[in-house]
Fold this protein.
Amino acid sequence: MISKLGSFVIITSMTLLLGIWLWLKKRIYEAIWVVATMGSCRIVFTTLKILVGRERPVFDEPLTHALSYSFPSGHSVNSLMFLLVCYSIFSYRKSFLWIAIIGTLLIGWSRLALGAHWFSDVLAGWGCGFMWISIAYQVKISIPLQNYVNKYFPN
């Protein structure tokens, strides 16, 4: 069950729900940022998976069957990105940092326990996630971009 929390379906659903909630709260810039950040992350790291083309570990009796390539771990990227996006939105609640850390570690560990990834896949997923959230956060705090969005989507 822990592994499923980092899946594309769950993360995409949660991203859309968060984006809609922010939009309804008149936090338009943040709503656009959340959806754009998570969407662009998915595109970039799916492309990276295809370019690297690393095969998954093979076991006689596998606990899971994954069809895509192994490197980097999509569950690791997705979970880290979503939890840190949530933390950037709700940073006034310090508990979100602990949820992000523990959730990300558990999902990464679950991918190893299921035999779906090599350890380096999970580490690369986290590294890619940190890199992408760093870039996305710099975009988020960009004043000219924020002014542009506020011009076309006034509160």
